[in-house]
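Customer escalation, tier 2.

The customer says the design service returned an amino acid string that "doesn't look like it belongs to this structure." They asked us to rerun it and document both sides in this ticket. The original structure tokens are below, unchanged.
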């Protein structure tokens, strides 16, 4: 079965290809400990940059600091005037950045949630997600959804006559689905990665990862619900379930 593209439920976006020009503030970096994606803090020298995304009420704004051949390679994040630049890459896939301002940690303080489309095509739709604290503009780690699906599930694919039996085991709970066997070019187990989508539901971060049993055929998707762990100060996968696709 061919899986149609899924639209994100996150709202409040501006197209990467937009042409509006806005004033942001960026200066030379202030030295501090850096991660592989975080860059530098900024001060107040006014410089014009293109606005490429914003939350519905404009609490969170994103500006393109560096661009090359249709790809933004450096982004300035502005939350209520507090700014930090990041080495996030935003390819112009035709899908706008998704920006939300909501409380995902349960501490009564909103976070900035940025979802970036990293790939789009035939049987391909992938996103990265970034959750940023508004208090100090630090990023809260989120386990990558494909890795969660690969590590937390087991699957088997067996051909029996003209039928194909697929079993997915998630922490002891088994899901079984049967499809017609059309040829012998099937995988031994589900493969994840070509469709990875993040969304927010009831103030919870969720992800769906589709599983291929054939190059162009999907058996279903693993839905992951994340929970913020205050002890480790990061998100962790909390609930997983498999949803079979109808053929």
């Amino acid at each position: 079965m061919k899986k149609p593209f899924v639209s994100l439920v996150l709202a409040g976006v501006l197209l990467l290809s937009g042409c509006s020009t806005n004033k942001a503030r960026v200066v030379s970096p202030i030295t501090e400990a850096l991660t592989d994606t975080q860059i530098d803090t900024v001060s107040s020298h006014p410089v014009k940059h293109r606005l490429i995304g914003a939350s519905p009420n404009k609490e969170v704004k994103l500006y393109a600091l560096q661009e090359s051949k249709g790809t933004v390679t450096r982004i300035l994040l502005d939350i209520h005037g507090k700014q930090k630049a990041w080495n996030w890459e935003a390819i112009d896939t035709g899908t706008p950045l998704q920006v939300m301002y909501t409380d995902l940690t349960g501490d009564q303080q909103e976070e900035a949630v940025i979802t970036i489309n990293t790939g789009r095509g035939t049987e391909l739709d992938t996103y990265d997600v970034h959750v940023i604290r508004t208090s100090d503009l630090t990023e809260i780690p989120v386990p990558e959804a494909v890795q969660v699906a690969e590590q937390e599930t087991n699957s088997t694919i067996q051909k029996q006559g003209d039928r194909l039996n697929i079993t997915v085991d998630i922490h002891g709970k088994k899901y079984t689905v049967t499809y017609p066997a059309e040829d012998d070019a099937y995988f031994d187990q589900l493969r994840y990665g070509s469709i990875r989508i993040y969304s927010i539901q009831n103030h919870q971060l969720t992800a769906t990862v589709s599983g291929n049993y054939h190059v162009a055929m999907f058996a279903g998707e693993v839905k992951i619900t994340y929970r913020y762990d205050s002890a480790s100060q990061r998100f962790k996968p909390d609930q997983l379930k498999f949803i079979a696709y109808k053929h």
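Tier 2 assessment: The sequence is consistent with the input. The radius of gyration is 20 Å. The chain has a mean pLDDT of 85. Sent an explanation to the customer and offered a walkthrough call.
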